[in-house]
Amino acid sequence: MRERKNIFQNADSMMIILYILLVLMGWLNIYAAVFDENHQSIFDLSTNYGKQALWIATSAILITMIMMADARFYSSFAYLIYGLILLLLIAVLGIGREVAGSKSWIEIGSFRLQPAELAKFATSLALAAYLGRTHINIENFKTKMVVGFLLGLPPILILLQNDTGSAMVYAAFFLVLFREGLSGGFLVAGFSAAVLFVASLLIRQWIVIAAVAGLLAFIGWQWQRGKRPWLALAGILVASALFVLSVDYAFHQVLEPHQKTRINVLLGKETDLKGAGYNVHQSLIAIGSGGALGKGYLHGTQTKYNYVPEQSTDFIFCTVGEEWGFAGSMVVLGLFLALLLRIIAQAERQRTAFARIYGYSVASILFFHLAINVGMAIGLLPVIGIPLPFFSYGGSSLWSFTILLFIFIKLDAHRNEVV
Amino acid sequence: MAVYLVKLFYIQVMSDKYQLLAESNVRRSLVQYPPRGVIYDRHGAKLVTNEPAYDLMVIPRQVKNPDTLELCRLLELDADQFRQRLQKARHYSLYKASIFLEQISKESYGYLQEKLYRFPGFFVQPRTLRRYPFPVAASILGYVGEVNQADIDKDSYYKSGDYIGKSGIEKSYEKELRGIKGMRIVMVDVFNREKGRFEDGRYDVPQVQGEDLITTLDLDLQVYAERLMQGKRGSIVAIEPATGEILAMVTAPGYDPNLLIGRQRAKNFAKLSKDPQKPLFNRALQAQYSPGSTFKLVVGLTGLQEGVLSVGTRYGCNGKASSPIACSHSHASPLDLLGAIEQSCNPYFWNVFRTSIDRFGYTHTRKGYNEWRRIVTSFGFASTVSPDLLNQAKGNIPKDSYYDKYFGENGWRSLTIRSLSIGQGEILVTPLQLANLAATIANRGYYIPPHIVKKAGNRELHFEKKSTAVERRHFYPIVEGMNRVFEASHGTARWYKIDSISSCGKTGTVQNPHGKDHAMFIAFAPKDNPKIALCVVVENSGFGATWAVPIASLLMEKFITGRIKRPDVEETMINTNLIGE
């Protein structure tokens, strides 16, 4: 048996410190969000902050377990973990409990678990394991198929649970794929599709199609390299036209009414301060009223008096914005950014493709969560209910991000070992 | 990320829109209505007090699918009324509170307090209602009601649902009585539950209680006067001559002021305003009569001042055969001034009047008349004499231009306007002005404008003394004459002389084209150092001495001695009904 070493030996202290800071700040803000002068006990398990304290404590246990395991465990058992989580995702469709319209919770006694949260690190492991093999080429059709399968299954199962927000997070993996050599065409196509989507909701469809035709004609006219690719451009035009026409259909037939309204509110086509727009409006009021330096800790009125819904989960950033102001928002965003940059920097230093890809997955997922969550709170993106990593109240969410990050810290700690 | 920074910077640092929205979210300004001032009589008896009442208020925007049935049951409303009231509140404002149901009962209030949390948007606003311990002096005290749009437009202090004095003292002393509304700013959560005071109450505005008023009224005298006037139509005004303080003021028939408070007000008000006896019409201030023979005093005083009359001047009288004005009764002839007052001789005062008007020559009527009119109006006639009573009629002493218009320019002589000499014709006065005349004579030449409130809060109210255009010395013979009205063997009021008090008076019987004559009497007592001056008018009762004199006599006796030695007279007066069924 090996000599037992300090499990944190070689672990990157910067990531750990940033993690601790974010978790603690998150807890302080959850405390503020539900703060009640008549109810001040910190460890009262009937309150969100009391429970969150428990989640934080259990996360410490999880961290210890992760750090104690053999570093090779994660690459070796990646597929197995992925498979188990897939089973859980399927199981939840059957035995899951519906909360707020999403059937995504498994209940064991008073304990509730959200498999969709755990699927993130499992998928990251599986993707890293697959793409981390030697001589793999992402431009290879078969590789694309397998990657598509790995990344596609979990979100489809999550969509079946009616949890659109969590499913969308899997789009974050595209960032990883680009790092691993996926051609830029996908990015251009994806971006164009997004622009067309928004445009066709805002403007009459024939104008959008005409504009696309004009643009393509211009590109064809200006083509410098060899023969003008008219046929390809015509194909793109037809595809765009079909896409634009189908957006209308999809918007009206596929999306749920509340999702439609959210998008319409964001695009400014509807102002609905009582219904769908209420959350965003109140969130803006809370953050906006914070001013440069905030109202002071525990002195936020909008969050404390429940004007902002979901204030300790999806809208936790409101508490930050209201009580700590612009300065506090900058600090929080700065910490997140520092963590992201550190993860990417460490990922680039990995010797194994597995660890690198996994690192990028972690960074992408965190970035995606951060961007969507904060973007929604400040009214830049539609309301998509996904948590702010480490901040939002919720055991599954905190555990999942803790596991996600600390597996990378563990891998990073062993980057110099011969695998 | 840059986009995020810009957006955060914009909403947090650049724009203050969200600060304001946040405040409007959590801040609720609760209006604190101070109790109105209490109104006392001159000896400290409470005439108007407050009792707590509760208005159910509603903020329509916050109303969320109420259990209408339950609320209707609590408030004893049917579903239609409920809808109408909510609609009315919505119409006023979605965001501001307005009265949903005024003055809910104490029982409903207690019950509602417990259940109200289930009806977001509704809350109870404590108010005070007026209460009148004695059912007297209704028209003087006035009443309080909800402000109308005109009140709000006139004074921005008032907001919809506020209360305001609508008439009487409540209206003329509104500013003193209402106090100043306070404001309590609290923070509320999204369910509109109070969470504490905003900034520890730094921006709260304390309410200022309304000032108490001490009126000049003597409650005992007022109650007694109203008893004497029951079953009669007319009015009484009693003044303390030295101060101009109104001791009692009665208009009959009157009404119980308690009818015009609370929720029944609208109903009762409509009923009162349709009453053919016009109880809402304050005869003491608003009824205009010819002064009749009471005016002879003014004619005499004017003659003395102008030097056309002296105490020894005698004029003959042929009784009913007198020309151009007949005398209503026969008496010895000729009479001097004192005798003419005692026996109310018409021809005597016609002669005095004629010499006044013609003193610059028979053809210089205008000059003589204008000079006469100047002196007469210095007694307060043809103007509002009281500074703090509302809706006083001015009466009328015609201007020369009136006669010009009527008879052609300079087409009139003293003879043309002879009715004025005996207080008939175009001349109109109010009971208040006549009482003021009695007070002026009691004071021998001046009056303090008659008023109803002597003290507001800690402020003693001060009223400027007004002198007439008649010198003090000319009043003594007139006072003597008025004394004879009670004391002398032929005095028109001799049957109601008060044994212990030397009193002065003058009767009047006012011809009334619409029915029986109005009885009128002005008096003051005691003759020296007078304590009370008054005017009594009993409409359609006939000769002045029959009805107005005994009432005045009883009032003076009651006020000065505190008791009545003539219970038979008292009983007759109280029990007589002159209005008929």
What is the gist of this entry?
Chain A has 419 residues and is mainly alpha-helical. In chain A, 66% of the residues lie in helices and 3% in strands.
Main sheet of chain A?
3 strands, antiparallel
Q: Based on DSSP secondary structure assignment, what is the total number of beta strands of chain B?
A: 19
Strand line-up across the major sheet of chain A:
1-2-3
Unreliable parts of chain B: none
Oligomer: heterodimer
- Measured distance between first and last alpha carbons of chain B: 93 Å
Query: Treating each run of at least 4 consecutive H or I residues as one helix, how many helices of chain A?
Result: 16
* H/E topology pattern of chain A: HHHHEEEHHHHHHHHHHHH
Largest interface: A-B, 30 and 25 residues
Structural class per helix/strand content of chain A?
mainly alpha
Helix-strand blueprint:
The complex is a heterodimer of chains A (419) and B (581).
Chain A: H1 13-33, H2 48-68, H3 71-76, H4 78-95, E1 97-99, E2 102-108, E3 111-113, H5 115-131, H6 141-160, H7 164-168, H8 173-179, H9 184-202, H10 205-222, H11 230-253, H12 257-266, H13 276-288, H14 316-348, H15 353-377, H16 395-413
Antiparallel strand pairs in A: 1-2, 2-3
Helix pairs in contact in A: 1-2, 1-14, 2-16, 4-5, 4-6, 5-6, 5-15, 5-16, 8-15, 9-11, 10-11, 13-14, 14-15, 15-16
Chain B: H1 2-14, H2 17-26, E1 27-32, E2 39-40, E3 46-58, H3 68-75, H4 79-92, E4 98-104, H5 106-115, E5 122-131, H6 138-141, E6 144-146, H7 149-154, E7 163-165, H8 168-172, H9 174-178, E8 182-188, E9 194-197, E10 213-215, H10 219-228, E11 234-240, E12 245-252, H11 265-274, H12 283-286, H13 296-306, H14 337-343, H15 346-357, H16 365-377, H17 400-407, H18 431-442, E13 446-447, E14 453-456, E15 459-460, E16 466-467, H19 475-487, E17 504-510, E18 518-525, E19 532-538, H20 544-561, H21 567-575
Parallel strand pairs in B: 2-10
Antiparallel strand pairs in B: 1-8, 2-3, 3-4, 3-5, 6-7, 8-9, 10-14, 11-12, 11-19, 13-16, 14-15, 17-18, 18-19
Helix pairs in contact in B: 10-20, 13-15, 14-19
